C-alpha cells in the first residue's frame, strides 16, 4: 500500500506539500498540485481514515524534548532529529525540560494545542500514565518511558561491562564507578553493567560507587573525596563523558597521572571526549544514528498511522584514547 512518502518521492516534493495539496490548506502552485495528484492516482494512494484524520489540521511540526541542553550529548542528538525531520518536510521544535514533569507536560499540552504532529522525548521522569493522554504519536529516545511506547536506546548494560573489562585488560586492580542520574533508567543499566564486571571481585566494596548525576562538577567533587579516601583505586568507569571529564580534573587536583596512576573510561562519545587532555577513552553511542532512527520511527507513525511498538537498540563501541593507553608492561618493569 502506497504511503504519503511514496507519493512525495514520486512527485519530488515533501510530505508536508502532499499534505497541503490533499487538505487544500496552505500554498502549492498549479504544477506542484498537478504532480501530486498524478502521483496519488498513479500510486493509487488511499490514506486511511486514521491517517487522514491525523493529517487534517496538522501543523507539519515535530518536537524533541530533552532534559539538559547544557550537556553536549543533547545538541548532537537534536542535530540528527532536525536534519531528518526537515528532510521529510517537517519543521522542528526543540524543548529543554530539566526533566521537570510539570514543564514536560506543559510542553506536551501546549504543542498539541498547536496541532503538533508528534513528539520525540528524552525523559527519565515521565511515566507511562503521563503518556496515556497523548493524542499524537511519540517515540522515546535514549531512555525508555513506557513498554508500550516505541523507543531508541543503546546496550547500556553490556556496554558498561565492556568498559570495565577494558580497564581490567590494561591492568587495573581496583575499579570504581561514577554513576549518572539515579532515576535515569540508562544510568541504572550502566551501573548494573559495572556490577556485572566487579561484584565477584574480592576487593569490591560499595564505597567504590559514587554519584555524579551526569554532571561534571558533581562528579569531580565526588571523585576527589573517593580517591582521597581510597588511594588504591586505579581505574574509574564514568557513566557519561561529562563525568569522565570531571574524573580527569579530580585526578589532576590530586596529582594522579592519567593513565598510569588512574585509567578512566567514559560513556557517550561526545566531541568533548576527544578534546579534553588527556583524550578520554569512552563507549561511543551512535548519537546521530539514534536521533535519525527516532525521527524515522515517528514520521512512519504519523504518516501511516502504524501503531506497531518498535524498539531499536544500537550497540556502543569502545574508542580507546590516552586515558587508558598504558605503556605495555615489560619484563624490566
Ligand atoms: O551525558 C548525558 C547522558 O544522558 C548520556 O549518557 C545520554 O545517554 C543521556 O541519557
TrEMBL record:
Pfam family, one: Peripla_BP_1
Domain called HTH lacI-type: residue spans: 2-56
SUPFAM superfamilies named in the record: lambda repressor-like DNA-binding domains, Periplasmic binding protein-like I
Keywords: DNA-binding, Repressor, Transcription, Transcription regulation
Molecular function per GO: DNA binding
Matches recorded under InterPro entries: HTH_LacI (IPR000843), Lambda_DNA-bd_dom_sf (IPR010982), Peripla_BP/Lac1_sug-bd_dom (IPR001761), Peripla_BP_I (IPR028082)
Annotated transmembrane regions: none
Name of this chain's protein: LacI family DNA-binding transcriptional regulator
Organism: Lentibacillus kimchii
